[in-house]
What does this fold into?
Amino acid sequence: MQNDTLPNALKFIDVQDSFILGFERHGSEYWVRVLFALTPQHPDYSPARSDEHASYRHGWLKAGGVRGVAADWKGRASLDPDGEVDFGAIDSLGFADGSLICEGDWGQLRVLCDTVAAELDTP
It folds into this structure.
């Protein structure tokens, strides 16, 4: 799925250069920890650091009003050189028919929900 199936909160995120770092359930919400790759059009964009090829920011992909979660795990997380858990890149991400669908080498996550938002950590 491409960015045109994503909510506006993800409009200026390069999802295929972003990485999944974790998954958490919080009551009626499901949170996905992400290292977001920001496009130059994103209001929080800054030039990439010399050791990175994109403008990265940690944050959360938050699904609200969750009515169900289905996951098909195919891989395991690894540890980055800095010790951070990393499930790998996002191959596709979209929101259709009331479901957030996220796929990568690690598997597929489908969250039946009402809303999807992206929240960046404070730098």
